[in-house]
Description:
The chain is an alpha+beta fold.
Amino acid sequence: MVMRKSYILLLFFIGLVCSLLNPVAAQDADAVTFELQLSKDKLGINERLRVDFTMNKDGDHFTPPDFEGFRVVGGPLQNISSSWVNGVRSYSKTYSYTLAPTARGIFTIGQATIEIDGELYKSLEKKVEVTAAVDKPSDQMTADDIAGESLHLVAEVSKTDPYLNEAVSVVYKLYVSPSVNVSNFRPLDNPKYNNFWSQDIPVTRYDVQNGTYDGKPYRYVILKRVVLYPQKDGKLEIEPLSLEVTIDVPTNKRDFFGGRIFTQTNRTVSAGKRTINVKPLPLAGKPSDFNGAVGEFNLSVTTSKTELNASESLQAVVEVKGKGNLKLFQLPDLSLPGALEVYDPEFDEQVRTTLSGMQGSVSNHYTIVPDTKGKYPIPGISFSYFNPRTGRYKTLRSDEIIINVLSGPATGRYENSGSGPVKQSVVGADNQFHFLKTQPGLKPKTVNHFFGSLSFWLWLFLPVILIPIAIMFGKRREAIARDVAGNKIRKANRLARKYLSKAKRELGQKEAFYIALEKALHNYLKAKLKIETSEFSKDKIASLLEKREVDADTSERFIGLLKNCEMARYSPFSNVQMQQDYQEASEVISSMDKQL
């Protein structure tokens, strides 16, 4: 008993000495801490984030941040922990939230506040990066496990190993188990088809169909359909489509009438990334006139007539018809004799896009006017394309067409019909010879004196008139120099006109033309809307035009021109397409001028 008392006194003495030797530790134990803790600082858009606000003393009036970029799916939950260790009390209180991202990007979890012992404490801010959806979320949390097993978003790709410029279709299907019901859905992250020429096939209505998923009966609906033409060989990735879906999940509870009670929950689903291995076009057997046409095509060259008189006109049509990348190559030029006057061709496009790719025809319409009598041949032209079904190139050739001009002035040198030079007699005029006049008919010249004339008085008073004009002009220049904002607008307006003129001069040079056209469009917006377009995306520009009451058609045409300028960096554009884009830019700018 005596030893036990001595042992207790010894422990008490050691604790007292330690507290005297380490007063800082005792003070730190009493310090108030209020911290923000994240389950992770980087997550996919289909994952969940846990946010904890922890304090070591009890407080009141807790105020959370607004959680910009996230949606609260759970919380706040309170957790209080209190314990005694070696006579020291440990206390912890935590407010927990479960968040779901609403968009991709870098977001900041702001400061929370709490009042402890009459003083206000704030937590530190932390940044969170939200990336594209991941295939297997590490901490996916749902209100009900059934929801995760009953909902699947699938991207069905028609071909994973296409050739360059061969059509690939992607169909996004949402599979839903018959045991649950979908109340609503909205896209969170639409994929960006980099290195692809893409065209959406609109889904006008969502028809529910029966199918199977993983060998089990499911219902599915087609959400999105898109046709892609790869513009680069190698491995290309298709970003995933992500949706937030509100679903009704059955519970084990029943209502008064015995019907099953459903609970509503939200779930984010993703189609996952898809990789496509694009094969390059073979070099063996590649024709010299090949310009990127991939598919199966037919070539035809026709004329509206083969016999006509001089100064009459005829139409010659170069048409390529079939199935393939019809919008992504240039038609061959028609070669005509120099004696035929020909106008720039009018481009016509009759193309429809289905899940199997583009189908239809593209054609150039030439207007030809002969000046002189004779027979003129229109030589045949060739058109080469690559057939991905056979894996070979094929060259098509048109037949020669003879244009017979029946009447009109004959050429002074020759006719194209093959006859020799045509001699013409020289006929003299009746008044070929004239006699010289014998009377010169000279008249005396009158001398005008300068002094006292109208010119004398004008030069005398001209400096007096110019002085006030110079003063007014100087004040005007000073006012313009002080108007910094106005000078920027005027400079942007001049640059817009300059680059639009440069784009016209660069017609036929794809890169230089579209660079100049894009600068013209951006400088026009700077001049009219007083904005720096480098800080704006196309969506923000469209929103700003809508606020300025520019009609939807003009806004869509303007945004379409900006997209064409970007697409031209990796897509083949014909001279006709450049001419159309230049004409479109002139019309759109004129229309926006009237509305703004």
